[in-house]
Design brief:
The complex is a heterotrimer of chains A (545), B (164) and C (576).
Chain A (H helix, E strand, L loop, with lengths): L5 E6 L2 H4 L3 H14 L6 E6 L11 E4 L3 E3 L7 H10 L9 E2 L6 E2 L6 H4 L17 H6 L4 H8 L2 H11 L11 H10 L6 E6 L8 H8 L1 H15 L3 E6 L4 H16 L4 E4 L4 E9 L9 H8 L23 E5 H19 L9 E8 L5 E6 L4 H8 L9 E6 L6 E3 L9 H6 L8 E6 L4 H15 L5 H18 L5 H16 L4 H5 L1 H10 L1 H9 L2 E2 L8 E2 L5
Parallel strand pairs in A: 1-2, 7-8, 7-11, 8-10, 12-16, 17-18
Antiparallel strand pairs in A: 1-3, 3-4, 5-6, 9-10, 12-13, 14-15, 14-16
Helix pairs in contact in A: 6-10, 6-13, 7-8, 7-10, 7-13, 9-10, 9-11, 10-13, 16-17, 16-20, 17-18, 18-20
Chain B lengths: L9 H18 L6 H12 L4 H11 L3 H8 L13 E6 L2 H19 L12 E6 L11 E3 L2 E3 L6 H7 L3
Parallel strand pairs in B: 1-2
Antiparallel strand pairs in B: 1-3, 3-4
Helix pairs in contact in B: 1-2, 1-3, 2-3, 3-4
Chain C lengths: L2 E6 L2 E6 L4 H7 L23 E4 L6 E2 L10 E3 L3 H16 L15 H8 L23 E3 L9 H9 L6 E3 L6 E3 L16 H5 L5 E3 L3 H8 L5 E6 L20 H11 L3 E4 H22 L5 E2 L4 H10 L13 H17 L6 E7 L3 H6 L14 E4 H10 L21 H4 L6 H15 L17 E8 L2 E9 L1 H12 L7 E5 L17 H17 L9 H11 L5 H7 L12
Parallel strand pairs in C: 1-5, 10-11, 10-13, 12-17, 13-14, 16-17
Antiparallel strand pairs in C: 1-2, 3-4, 3-5, 6-9, 7-8, 15-16
The chains are: A alpha/beta (545), B alpha+beta (164), C alpha/beta (576).
The structure holds flavin mononucleotide, iron/sulfur cluster (3 copies) and FE2/S2 (inorganic) cluster (2 copies).
Chain lengths: 545, 164, 576
Amino acid sequence: MRFYRAHVLVCAGTNCSLKGNRAVREALIREIEGKGLGEEVKVIETGCFGLCEQGPTIVIYPEGVLYCRATVEDVPELVDSHLLKGRRVERLLYREPTRPVAVQTVPELDYFKKQVRVVLRNCGIIDPDSIEEYIGQGGYTALAKALAMKPEEVIAQVKASGLRGRGGAGFPTGLKWEFGRKAPGGVKYVVCNADEGEPGTFKDRLILEGDPHAVLEAMAIAGWAIGANYGYIYIRGEYQLSIQRLERAIEQARRLGLLGQNIFNSGFNFDVEVRIGAGAYVCGEETALFESLEGKRGEPRIKPPYPTDVGLFGKPTVINNVETLANIPPIITRGAEWFRTLGTEKCPGTKVFTLTGDIVNEGLIEVPMGITLREVVYEIGGGIPNGHKFKMAQTGGTSGGCLPEALLDVPMDYDQLAAAGSALGSGALLIMDDTHCIVDVARCFARFFLHESCGQCIPCREGTLQLYHLVDGITRGTGTRQDLELIERLSRTMYVAPLCPLGQTAPLPIMTTLKYFKDEYLAHVDSRVCPTGTCRALATGHAAD
Amino acid sequence: MAVALDKLSPDLREQRLREVEAAVARHRDKPGALLAVLKEVQGILGYLPEEALKKVSQGLELPLSQVYGVATFYTLFNTRPRGQHIIRLCESAPCHVQGAREVLEALKRELGIGPGEDTPDGKWSLELVSCIGVCGVAPAIMIDDQVYGNLTPDCIPGILASYR
Amino acid sequence: MSMVTLTIDGREVRAAKGATILEAARAAGINIPTLCYHPDQEVKAVCRICVVEVKGSRTLQAACAFPVAEGMVVNTQSPQVREARRTILELIVARHPLECLQCARNLNCELQTLAAQLGVREAPFARLEKQYVPDTSSPSLVRDPAKCVVCRRCVETCQQVQGVGVLFPINRGADTVVAPPFDHGLLDAVCAMCGQCSLACPTGAIVEQDHTRLVWQALGDPRKHVVVQTAPATRVTIGEEFGMPPGSIITGQLVAALRRLGFDRVFDTDFTADLTIMEEGHELIKRVKEGGRLPMFTSCSPGWIKFIEHFFPELLPNLSTCKSPQQMFGALTKTYYAEKQGIDPADIFVVSIMPCTAKKFEAGRPEMTDSGFADVDAVLTSRELGRMLREAGIDFASLPEEDYDLPLGISTGAAAIFGATGGVMEAALRTAYEVLTGRPLENLEITAVRGLDGIKEAAVEVNGLVVKAAVGHGLANAKKLCELVSRGQADYHFIEIMCCPGGCIGGGGQPIPTTNAIRQRRIDAIYQVDRDMPIRKSHENPVVRTLYEEFLGKPLGEKSHHLLHTHYVARQRYPG
Ligand SMILES: Cc1cc2nc3c(=O)[nH]c(=O)nc-3n(C[C@H](O)[C@H](O)[C@H](O)COP(=O)(O)O)c2cc1C
Ligand code: SF4
Ligand code: SF4
Ligand code: SF4
Ligand code: FES
Ligand code: FES
């Protein structure tokens, strides 16, 4: 391998791609070649760093200096000053809102200080299109190690780690694998759930864009553990870049014999196929995903039977989320003990969150489970921009609950957020400041479920319609107190009666907004006033003034 | 892009339908291939007309009603011809609170159509969709396969102009 | 079988492992309301009306789907359960047209019954009615998606039971509708017109095309000589329209009721069923002797005819050319009977009482006009006749038993069993054996072809030739047999196909509910009718003999060919 004096990492995640990273990268290569540095400096396209708000981002190693919002025009100066003369370009250094001084390097950032990178270990570090770089970081050693273990030992290791599914339900992964292993049947499947449709969530995309091999390696390990020789990755059709990267990664892995027949001479065969969705949030629900993968309407199945007994094509199937899988290789190489040093007792490990809405650092973070909402919002997220005040945080995406300021200190893991009446879900965090109307955003939530209900069962199909109609009426100034009661009654039924969790969680954001922001609803129905002025059909100002 | 099948010249139409048959044949032996087939057929014709779905139905030995039922379940499939470019505006909460409503208004103004509609010249279609997974750069739209993020109403004319 | 013990509403209940809560509760006499549940179908669990509390579960569970377990504690009547059920029902009602008074299913609608049972009195939700135009394209059925609760029972029936697959859920979410593809009406689709979907439907979203007005009009027209024929299966089902238990044999009351409605002659399709055996039997013998196309399929079930025309047009030469008994009856009434009675056939109005919606389509086929007039003018299903009798205020149960009119009211037991799957085959074998061997058949009852198994086989030795026969009912079974024949893997001589499961006693125009358990009781009854008949073989029907002597000449003769046989149309596999 050639030795380079410096590595210039350019984020090639979708978010940065939208900000012209490609032009910047090409300009960098041209400039470096032009200056005769081509032999010493290597430009690498990487997955997302997480600081999407600041893109396109560039990190120059070995120092790890972080530059933000770089444009093609900045490139000559960067190359000349940093790479030739060894002087940092002050004006492009990242500035944290809480600190007046520019941050120089990645490890110095508040943004990164509280973060622990397990899942995102390679994102932003390696070239996702290069299996060699993945291997260079220790990739596929976990698979080699697992194949030298008995499947039961692999499962025991995963069980001992306490890893819980990151797709939303938080089911213990080791236990799921054990069910999969014990299910009778010759043909079994491993499925990676990459459908990621929960609004505000884009972690799986960035993992797949930044480190596709981690998922492939984990799927092979899962296959070995449960006795499956074939895996499917079901990915939403909108994720073009992830699909490309995955396809390429699969080809590379096949070429090196890391997928296919007789992997590592163990006699174990495993291959993976990518299947592409066609636009339906509900297909993220595991049994709807199976239906869709089988070429049908994505309608959730009745449970039981559970997927580990009757899954894809009627065979025992272990289905895991992308992030869950990305945790597997480090658990195998570093052990369950190590994993348990992170996070909480009941929820060990880290969690990847995606920060969206009214927050300074929109983007992707990875933190230990159990961190509080306040730490994430203020210390990592950089707080609320433009001098506005925090109003609410929705955890777990649109199917999660909305929490007011008073609950900012809740530790975030599956159990504690559930206890607070919300959910950890996919790890989406939507932050809203006090300029936004709670009813207006509730209407937006209701609309999502109206649009995404599969339409199979009555309480969800008809309930989402009426719920939207009721909330919409309030934003239009036709709501009444009876409507609020009806919303509550309907929500109670929707919370317990639908066939699948989509319908069962649909009322959650509405119920929590109504619980924590009742006054704002009352202003809309009693005084026909929208305090934030968002609902245009109503008067602006304060109720009962 | 999406010209109605019956508006094509007979030769071209035959050719396209043969391409459809070939696409079906390529996938026939894969289990659960219907979505992949529909995606390819839409790639060939721009939409999923009845004649093409009949070929799919015959090739995969599925009732036409089932093929149609599947096609109408997913938002990325169209069973009628749409505009040359489909604009999908994300209306989910993260984009909404970051100003998707204003972007929608700009789009409506520029295009003269509302969601679910096509411009009379057949160039544009406008759709409201749920989160497209680029919320880090909210508010966002997709035009065909291309994503645009961090939008303000002012961006819209320029973006649309780049398609002329 | 291993058993578990659970508690339902505080009562200890034993149930088989693997049973659902609903089954366990019903066996214990605890009634849980249902809507999408159908005893003969896969569990769909989509209406959620049957939700119950299961201790330890955050959500409610659908009783129709959730399996019992040892020690499980179930509450079917908690306040939460009652609120959920009522809310769900109110949600349905909010989008359901409030047209009960005009609906064909008024007083026999599962939704209406539920609303009454659960005491839905308020309408708290906005009326967001579905805007659909009813599909009246089909001569057999009317589909009104506005009344559909998307329970998908018809989807399973059409796709799994009938192997047709016209109806399927379209769109998603609140826009979901069960319909044929691409906005086609049923007439333009590959629909067999069998009406099985109308039996499956809990509401009035799929009902028969109504011919009652047409019939009232004819009955009220003094110039018309109105003749009625009753299909074999109707004599064991129409009682159910009046609350009689399934399997009640009401032949005599039926005749009496029809006379009271004002029909000029009450005849019996059973007569032409006997005639069909003569014609079809001779056709089979001819094919066997002359090396004609085999196996020969029966042709008396019009849904089956429509199906084979769409799906297996290459097998049309295998179909017997015999018209169905209904059409033979019409053709003879407007020729032989008209001549005999000296009535101008133009003044004769033939009404059939049928178990079947496809018969409406058949009666309208352009081929069915060999007398110079439409063979049959109006077709009433059992359900429509029930409505007319109720409108006329006829107290069915208390009617005396009366006899059919002469001559077209004379029939045999062999004709009666046309109403059950296997019956045509059994009747044909009775006759074929005796005609060919000249010896009396010792045991008339060929039980191998009876019963609800999907495909049945029999072999009978006749003069050294082993006649191999198969019987299929329900079009999915027909499809299997057709595929075998297509591939040349069926070495049968004769195949009986009935479009509807169980045969005509389970026809798409029969009283609702029609379930497999009810079908079985109707089958038992029809074989009782057979046993009670003085003559049980078609070739012994004296009037059929007279008919050949006086009018037709001989089976497959020239007149028969003209009046009693037909041809078929190869149709497209798909519309367009
Ligand atoms: C409506 C709905 C949408 C879901 N979407 C996703 C998704 O996009 N990605 C995902 O991994 N899990 C999703 N899930 C959760 C899956 O059903 C399933 O629990 C998960 O894939 C299991 O993997 P895990 O154990 O690794 O979390 C969704 C669930 C529901 C009810
Ligand atoms: S809850 Fe909603 S999404 Fe889930 S099955 Fe019912 S209708 Fe479909
Ligand atoms: S009449 Fe028969 S074939 Fe036609 S839609 Fe109904 S069930 Fe299907
Ligand atoms: S038409 Fe009737 S049977 Fe079919 S889905 Fe609708 S309500 Fe159910
Ligand atoms: S919310 Fe708009 S892209 Fe995710
Ligand atoms: S009867 Fe159980 S869900 Fe419909």
